[in-house]
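Researcher: Good morning. I'm working through a list of sequences from a screen, and I'd like to move beyond sequence-only analysis. For each chain I'm collecting a predicted structure so we can compare shapes side by side. This is the next one on the list. No need for commentary yet; just the structure.
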Amino acid sequence: MSQKMLLTLCFSFIIITSSTLSGQSIDAALRAKAQQLAERYIITDGHVDLPYRLRIQNFRPTKEYLGIPISTKDGDFDYERSKKGGLDAPFMSIYIPASYQTEGGAKELADSLIDMVSAITVAHPDKFMLANSPADVRVAFEAGKIALPMGMENGAPIGDDLSNVAYFRKRGIDYITLTHSKDNLICDSSYDTTRTWNGLSPFGREVVAEMNRVGIMVDISHVSDSTFWQVMELSQAPCIASHSSARKFTPGFERNMNDDMIKALARKGGVIQINFGSTFLDGKVAAQRDSLRALLQDILAEKDLSFRDDAAEPIIEKFQQEHPALFADVNTVADHIDHVVALSGVDYVAFGSDFDGVGDSLPTGLKDVSMYPNLIMELLRRGYQEDEIAKICYSNVFRVWRQVALVAEFQQ
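Model: Good morning. Structure tokens for this chain:
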């Protein structure tokens, strides 16, 4: 090898190594900055399904039992992982399955889940605190505690009694998702093709007005498109989508919001809180998962089994090992945020993970509540400024929360 060729190779090696080290240094600096911002700023999350998960596990939040929600490998949320990720104000989902609309007991279930959240704060007063306003969240943050505001997912517990809206406000409910997977007495669901009301029911219109009056945020996640547009016309206060993403990336998926809806929500001063579930983020992932589920269902049917049968468990486990599911990643979540910002600006987007509510479909890099810094790091990489990240982390949600309270004050 000639001396000239040797020198060329040496210089090339130096340049490549220097570039790699430079990239590593940039990543390390971004990661450190992201962790710093996660600790400096309040982080809100519009939707965490911890209460219903704990109910399924027959949880008793006593001081003697510290495993959940303090430290556990189960689920997506606990105290230690929240502190690691900088999560300060996860809205606890008071989730009411649609079956309670026909079988009864919706109000009783809601009360029991609210009692559970309250009991967690009583059992662990040094770690958790109930919150019904941005001011409460800030008090908790300054005390080093995790604030637990609550949102009721499905308005079914209201029943046909309008006074229950004020009742649940007094019980600490800060938002109500008008329906869930089926049409209810309030409105139509995005998942239900029945279209019982073609939007809001007459009673549902009263419910929205009453939510404005008592200061409960109207959540349009899960509702049909017709319901959404009628809420935009009717509500006197800005609204939220507590855990929805952009339909642009999941064509035909009505559960997400299309561009016109995102812009309309913003014009009213509201905020879309991006859902982290892979099927909410990427239509290709959703299609692949649907295909695998159908294949597994056929395998079980051949053996006269259902997904819930004990005998199906080893078959399901083997199938999952042989057919690993696709996942979105933290970049995809940032893509959704970018899209909302491009449509409406940075003032109208936030986090609404749906942790503990979307099963195993969480994206790579955002598998539990310890990983918000990964998303903040990606936003920094894309050029978001610190004040913009603060808006996404908490101040956009705080603005809507305060405005809803002001609208209620003027109506008292």
